[in-house]
């Protein structure tokens, strides 16, 4: 159970609060859409509606994480978003290819969606064209993936935030600041080879204490890629969703929990863990849960 | 022409750009990040230029973090902090020089490069020893073990101690001696900058070869004339702080001056210092020029 001495930032976007002391605000849950193949919008709308509904029921904030893999998919995905998402509700765009990131940012600008956008993500692979575009088309919030190829420890995450581990001219926090992005979520980079989940979880309180920024990760990725767990295929999905509990228990503020279809399990699961954390945080540290915290929803 | 075995060498670092985007692509693919392609690029340039004693190019990290990152008791964040007793935890550069060994022909020699203990101590924030000598000797003991491990794979070990040019502590010989004890290879001590004030101490160091930036500081020739010794000399012959590529004739004249001062004590020629700060094409052109000049003066 954690409470941090460093004052904690709590960023608000579209009615969702990211950050704060453990037990104060519920864990923000990012559900992934369109990760495989061509976007399938009918199924996606069903899953999105289900996630929004269970989020509303439990008091858990949910955000769709839209994976965009091709330029052809940009406009259809943004149109889908405009049709199926509540107005002003935030979303994240998850893009790997640097040139595609530029095109997506420009489209978000054209669709007037940047004020709702969480950029996924800034990291040591940031390119000059990407930086230039981000200055012109600035999203409301960004994830920073604190992956340090030189050092997988929590200190390595600090290093890459501070000075880019000498792979960039400045640290990633300074990069975000230079782009005019103040609302920063630090992703402690769980997708380390060798199932190196421990460092990603241990980094959550370390980074949070150092900067007071909201922290989280996609710990489920480690489960998804686990080879030994594949031998126990009947429980792999259970471990996948359950792995997200570690984020709440280590003081994290958000979880990129995997495919959106896991939401019906992950959302109540995380509500339960958030309530456990909140109970003790209030009893021991005097941290009161926010108005829409699941503890208030279920124990009004 | 003076026919004897004078070799061309490097001081340490070589400017290979490691693109963050490539490293992130490996991260997103869930692969282990490999530094070996970058080592291969550095070694490829050195051997193509004809250099006879090559290094690993120190592409992995700046020369401080390269060592402190892998030592117990050191925590690398924005800078290295010494937070406990400095402990050698196994090979630091050993894997990289083994890669070099596989890349080069049997006739090509390898220099293993260590950052000196005084420079490491001065570049860190000491939160544990609160005593410069103790901290320096802690690093020296760790480097002794690294030198011993390297001795199996390299033909020479070079200690890079740029900080000696600013401040030469009373225990400098002791610290260098600790490392020399560990190596069965010839030892070289590289001190860049203007060392004319400390030549009388340098000639008594427990090493086999002294290396300095004679090209940027030709007045060092005069300083050495005052302190005759039997110490072998590595003559810095192309500048590492200037993008202008020297002509072969200019470097030949420089080497002839070295011959006048040191005679048969000249055993190596090298760039003035590590070449990390130069553009790659300039660094390569300087190595090629160095080799050509060396062949004019000492043969191929």
Explained architecture:
The complex is a heterodimer of chains A (300) and B (300). Chain A contains 12 helices and 10 strands. Chain A is an alpha/beta fold and 300 residues long. By secondary structure, chain B is α/β, with parallel strands linked by helices. Chain B has one domain: TIM Barrel, CATH 3.20.20.210. In chain B, 39% of the residues lie in helices and 18% in strands. In chain B, the strands form 2 sheets. In chain B, strands 1-11-10-9-8-7-5-2 form an 8-stranded parallel β-sheet. In chain B, strands 3-4-6 form a 3-stranded mixed β-sheet. In chain B, helix 2 (36-48) crosses helix 4 (94-103), helix 6 runs parallel beside helix 7 (172-181) and helix 9 (219-225) packs parallel to helix 10.
Set out the fold topology.
The complex is a heterodimer of chains A (300) and B (300).
Chain A: E1 10-13, E2 16-19, E3 28-33, H1 41-58, E4 62-67, H2 74-84, E5 91-94, H3 98-110, E6 117-122, H4 128-136, E7 141-145, H5 154-163, H6 172-178, E8 184-187, H7 197-211, E9 215-217, H8 220-224, H9 233-242, H10 245-249, E10 254-259, H11 263-285, H12 294-298
Parallel strand pairs in A: 3-4, 3-10, 4-5, 5-6, 6-7, 7-8, 8-9, 9-10
Antiparallel strand pairs in A: 1-2
Helix pairs in contact in A: 1-11, 3-4, 5-7
Chain B: E1 7-8, H1 20-28, H2 36-48, E2 53-54, H3 65-68, E3 71-76, E4 80-88, H4 94-103, E5 109-115, H5 117-123, E6 125-126, H6 132-150, E7 156-160, H7 172-181, E8 187-190, H8 199-202, E9 209-212, H9 219-225, E10 232-238, H10 248-262, E11 266-271, H11 280-298
Parallel strand pairs in B: 1-11, 2-5, 4-6, 5-7, 7-8, 8-9, 9-10, 10-11
Antiparallel strand pairs in B: 3-4
Helix pairs in contact in B: 2-4, 5-6, 6-7, 9-10, 10-11
